[in-house]
Specification:
The protein has about 325 residues and is an alpha/beta fold. The protein has helices spanning about 5-10, 15-20, 30-40, 50-55, 70-85, 100-110, 130-135, 160-170, 185-200, 215-230, 240-250, 270-275, 285-300; strands at about 60-65, 90-95, 115-120, 140, 150-155, 175-180, 205-210, 235, 260-265, 280, 310-315, 315-320. This is LacI family transcriptional regulator.
Length: about 325
């Protein structure tokens, strides 16, 4: 089995230079290329256990989340895994469905000595902030502003995104705008509704708000109610409900972009979206995962000290605004 000395000899660099390469330090591009080629040629495998004992690290990140099967969640995980692998880390993923499980799964991750935690709950949770504050390893929370000050936090600028869509409909002359909201029990749903209400402030146009329950069925029923009310533009704040909305349009013979303006949250690529006459708010799920991993790895390298905890606001991509996706 090849050793680090063999890699250094073949690459024509010092053992220390190879060690810095393996630990993610910046090197001259030529040296990086020579070391990478030597590692591939020798089929060198780093001894992670020995490395961890030496540096008092496990080279693993804990990821605690619910709704792992959602498309947004899976793309977040993909982004985290990408950055973790690039930096020689593995992911220990722990999912849960209720509040008792989340405490058990947190204990499980801590018992496995992960070097850092990334926490993503798609539903709002009531945190015992003191418990999280006592954890000594770096933590990054996704979409939970109440954890500011005890951990780094990543947030999506949903309020501005929805404001821009509703303002677009107002500028197009719509006087009756329907808004199909998710339940107001979590931060994300509230931010999206706040954005819609802010756009409507001091405007003569009307907005009718119907609250669904994240399901396709509630999307259908809510859209049916908004169409009966006379909405000429409808925005749906959740992907699953938007599927029900489109089914409702189809049943009633309404053509999106001709008979009614339609906007919603989705995860379509720009290429997919370009064929559809609708406005889509596209959250940067994979990039959010990448940023979360970068933040927690940066904290690990710094020893979880020094700078104040960061709050990073990430922008959604708005697709369809330029094409004028309205009647």
């Amino acid at each position: 089995m090849a050793s680090i000395r063999d890699v250094a000899q073949l690459a024509g660099v010092s053992v220390g230079t190879v060690s810095r390469y393996l630990n993610g330090h910046q090197l001259k591009q030529l040296n990086r290329e020579k070391i990478a080629a030597a590692i591939e040629s020798l089929d060198y495998k780093e001894n992670i256990i020995a490395k961890g004992l030496k540096n008092n690290r496990s080279y693993s990140l804990g990821l605690l989340m619910n709704r792992i099967s959602s498309r947004f969640g899976s793309e977040v995980v993909s982004g985290i895994e990408k950055v973790a692998e690039e930096n020689g880390y593995s992911i220990l993923l722990s999912g849960f469905t209720n509040s008792k499980e989340d405490h058990d799964k947190l204990d499980y991750l801590l018992q496995h000595a992960v070097d850092g935690l990334i926490v993503f709950f798609s539903d709002e949770k009531k945190f015992d902030l003191s418990k999280w504050q006592d954890i000594q390893i770096p933590i990054v929370f996704l979409n939970h502003p109440e954890t500011q000050g005890i951990a780094d936090v990543l947030l999506l600028n949903d309020r501005q995104s929805v404001f821009d869509v509703i303002n677009h409909y107002l500028a197009a002359g719509h006087k009756k705008i329907g808004y199909l909201s998710a339940p107001q029990s979590d931060h994300t749903a509230r931010e999206r509704l706040f954005g819609a209400q802010a756009a409507m402030a001091n405007n003569e146009a009307e907005m009718k708000i119907v609250v669904g329950d994240y399901t396709r069925q509630s999307g259908y029923r809510g859209t049916e109610e908004l169409v009966a009310w006379g909405a000429t533009a409808i925005f749906v704040s959740n992907y699953n409900m938007s599927v029900g909305a489109l089914e409702c349009f189809n049943q009633k013979g309404l053509i999106v972009g001709k008979d009614i303006a339609f906007g919603h949250y989705d995860y379509l690529s720009e290429a997919e979206q370009s064929l559809l006459p609708q406005i889509t708010v596209n959250p940067p799920a994979e990039k959010m995962g990448e940023k979360a991993a970068e933040l927690v790895l940066e904290r690990i390298k710094m020893g979880n000290t020094a700078t104040e905890k960061q709050v990073v606001l990430m922008e959604n991509q708005l697709l369809g605004l330029a094409e004028g996706a309205e009647t």
